[in-house]
Write a structure and sequence with these properties.
Shape: globular
Structural class: mainly alpha
Strand content: under 5%
């Protein structure tokens, strides 16, 4: 997941950056790039991973609706 501060990066741009900066092995590079306006947060200010997973399922046409915050 990426929340861009400027122009939206492409998967190729992100992969090139990660290989150059961190020398990641090919199997550790992302295969999919999800660009979000902002990360969903819980009431305590943590990233809501359940909501992120629901958004991915929704984007892939697997789920009905995103999870609701408690």
């Amino acid at each position: 997941f990426v929340v861009p501060t400027g122009a939206e990066p492409s998967l190729a741009d992100l992969t090139a950056f990660l290989q150059e900066r961190f020398r990641l092995a090919k199997q550790k590079l992302p295969e999919v790039l999800h660009v979000l306006a902002e990360l969903p947060m819980t009431a305590t200010g943590k990233v809501n991973k359940q909501e992120l997973r629901a958004q991915v399922r929704l984007a892939q046409g697997i789920g009905d609706t995103p999870a609701r915050a408690s």
